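[scheduler] slot 2 assigned
[scheduler] job type: sequence-to-structure, two independent chains
[scheduler] chain ordering preserved from manifest
[runner] begin chain α
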Amino acid sequence: MEKIGGEIRRELTERLIPFWLGLRDDVNGGFIGYVDFDLTPHPEADRGCILNSRILWFFSEAYMMLKDEKLMDAARHAYAMLRRMTDTQHGGVYWSVHPDGTPADTLKHTYNQAFAIYALSAFYRAGGGEEALSAAQALYRTIEEKCRDRDGYLEAFTADWQPASNEKLSENGVMAGRTMNTLLHVMEGYTGLYQAWKDEGLRENLKEILDIFENRVYNHTLARQEVFFDMDYNSLIDLHSFGHDIETSWLTEKTLEELNDPALTARIRPLLLAMADHTWHAAFTGHGFANECERGVVNQNRIWWVQAEALLGFLNAWEKTGEERYREAVYTQWAYIRDVLRDPREGSEWFWYVHEDGTPGKEKPIVEPWKCPYHNGRMCMEFLRRGGDL
């Protein structure tokens, strides 16, 4: 097989980085939060905190890898907007702000707080200063004080931390009291913070999250995660999220590496490899990676983030098992991303999704509050960190 590291590096440096740098807004601050399918930017659109956090994380990590000062400058610009997204009265970050930085949607979501922690921790490690670490630590304490109970992490709150309904992280016709997705990304945010701050309480929180994953979220019979739960962790729907399972299969390895607990790794890693194996059989087609299976019906749309996470999940599975099928899947996934999912138009990046036949879903924009450089940028950087080729 031909080496693909050079292509992936160019994807990062010649496509993704220039595209997102081009969305910098020096009038209002931050980065433009919406670009429609026709590649028209909308600077008047509200700025989602999740999108801004992911942009901050992306440029911070890219700077640490490439040492290009313009990336650190972009990270500082995103950091300034994130500070404007912070509620100085009640703590936490809002869901979104208007372009001028005033609150638009004041909902406080645990998932959103976790991504801000992730971004601030990366910015600190990139050289952003002690203020960024202090802000990340404050958000961590807010989550532990406001966003959890004895059984795990809660979801949505009003601006002053009263319980709110969870429309933001509920889909497929259910209203979830707890979600796999929020738990996964609290773990991710806490892992990023632990990289910067080796706090024993934080370490114990990460172990608690892995315990919840193992005993409440992971379905040992079906070798998958359940997705939406009531408050007692009863699953609300027969849903197999292929994308989240393959993402979890490698992302949780990062947490295990940071914790460096051999007994814990020996207990959790087999579950991660079982998910990678299950999704390889159920979702990997050789022509992209399917989205999810709800009540036995597979959604065959090829979502941008799912394709990126599949490549990393198979890379991790190959490294841990040495099974050639996973190595081949990495190459196949990259070819699909490069030839089908990537928008061929000048000045764009990836389509939000393509149909099974490869035609793009034109009703979806190129940038919106969830469409960001985090999944595909992370795919490039993680691949390069792991040696740059197989």
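[runner] end chain α
[runner] begin chain β
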Amino acid sequence: MLKKAISISLSKARSFVLKKQLLNTAPKLRGKQGVMGIIDTLGYIQIDTINVIERSHHLVLLTRCPDYKQQFLYDLQAKDKKIFEYWAHAASFIPMKDFRYYIRKKKEKPKKDSWYDTWIKKYRNSLKKTKSRIEKEGPLAASDFKDNINRKRGPWWDWKPAKAALEILFWNGELMIRERRKFQRVYDLTERVLPKDIDTTLPHIDDEKVFFIKRALKAMGVATIQDINKYIGISGRLNKWVDQMLKSGQILELTIKGLDKSYYILTEDLEEIGRSKTGISPRVRFLSPFDNSIILRDRTSALFNFDYSLEAYVPKSKRKYGYFCLPILWQNQLIGRIDPKADRQNKILIINNLHLEDKKINYNGFIPALSRAIKDLTDFHNCEKINLSKNIPSKISHKITI
């Protein structure tokens, strides 16, 4: 018996994807437990160092949890031990219950002559010394280790030997991050960080791969094979296991009208996507460049017809929208970009640029929601004033009320 082909509209796919990403309904997750729920639902939250406004991981959580406080994230890692740090898509906060599925990556031997292999050979003598200090003294940060002031310095990733040793020991699983102090990593022995009841058995390779596929699809809703492979990048290529899950009926293949690629969905989610309404949030949301919902740029372009790149890595003369421009989400569409900067010393939130791309915007509904979002961002940064740049068209800036 032939299976009936499944096809959905682009608008329904978009709405379903945003629902899975906790972005298109009224916020229900609040407080520290809400933050834990967000991390668990998304599978990871990427950590980034850029702080022209608050760092990305805080923005991702604020976007979904209106009463978010940075203390919530600190407590979940340092006190409650509900999350841990490792590489997922990149450096990330990950639910502690997922720990065992990352063990194989930690035990993986470096490829011969790779930068990792070279580092291990170069800093082999520092590894034992660094770990020994932590064993005896307790948790330490890189700043607790002195540098050799006479060593030759290179142009990139020029870490002192102890910092390199700490990172190698972290990557191979001998150390974990106990907490962060002013964003600085504090390292400790893995056995002293892990909760006593955590499962540390190495899963079968098939179970591990299926886990990562389910993690990706639960967070993304519908996804191409490329999306599944990239969502949690350390999972490796999952094509073989996607085919197996397709044959066993755990996942289904579908098409999205207007798009030429095949998409996949968990069979258990088919009924949910079939519902006529999945909700449209009245809120305007500013998405971090590293937000899980847009981190895969090709996917964002296909599903939202929105081409986005982070211009922080582009020379100033070539920037079109701004250094740390945030996509603007409203009514299930990405309709523009905003480029904010926090002047923390003077307690001013500066809006350097605001670019709207959808000419069919209902300004009567959008502008009040935009004003509210800017006010919320201002409050989150403990700023007292807002400075709207002259780059913003007057027909928009004059309507914004804070």
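[runner] end chain β
[qc] chain β: The two ends are 61 Å apart (CA to CA).
[scheduler] slot 2 released
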